[in-house]
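Appendix B. Raw example, untouched.
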Amino acid sequence: MPDQFSEQARSDFQRARFKAFMNRVWATLSGQPTTLLSYDDIKEKLHVGGPIYRGVKTVRVDQIAGSLNRYHEFDRVFLPASDQLADRWQSVNRAFYQEISLPPVVIYKVGQVYFVVDGHHRVSVAREQGQIFIEAEVRECSTRVNITADIKPEDLIILETKVQFLERTSLDSRKPDANIKLTIPDGFDRMLEHIAVHRYFMGIDWKRDISEEEAIIHWYDNVYMPVINVIRDTDILQEFPTKTEGDLYLWVLDHQQYLVEEGKPLQPPEDAARTFLGNENKKTLRTKKKIKTKNKPRQSEKK
């Protein structure tokens, strides 16, 4: 019987290696990375806090997408990236067939993603065998932003700037309900500029020094949120499914600045949003009408 298990384990490893090869080919063609997330990279960029022990829990295997120090040895779906992993991988796989209990894996949790500290081969075998859950000893790391298992490199770049924005403004503690999301790489840097300009004009209008905290809260309540409320009232976001409310806010402020440079009077944020988004809505409707007319069959084609 042990020989039968060994042969099956060997066959499973060869199949897993072939899948890993195909994933690598697809990554080359698509330009999408297939490597595991590096915990050290995430920790450095997102300023992750120290791990807190949360006990042994049952976690979803597909949420384990990173590693503490072996992220080059497996791909993003934990397929083995080298034949050198064969002995250990097959040993764990034999234990699966023999129904031998193995200790829980050890993982760090950051947002909604788990990073393996110990138990990489167990996670790899579990995933290859179609397991949905696995027992894990969880240590949770604090972070000011949420990440998910499907995070892309470009997402990480934006989240890094979001962390810097939150550290500078403390908006997440001053306005707990605030959760600004962007897909524009320099968007949070531009918002910091908006706050600085807003603070300057507040000082002129109110004829006194304005603290940074006061300017941040006033910008959020009187510049950012009025634009967001118009975005929500017009439902225009559904016309831009890959964009966020924060993206459209930046578009509105860019348009407002363009009008000022063209000699137009400065509009209040809410009015600027209604003007810009109203024009965008008309453009979208005209485009849809053109497409519908273009695709509409002629009378001769209906018969």
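End of appendix B.
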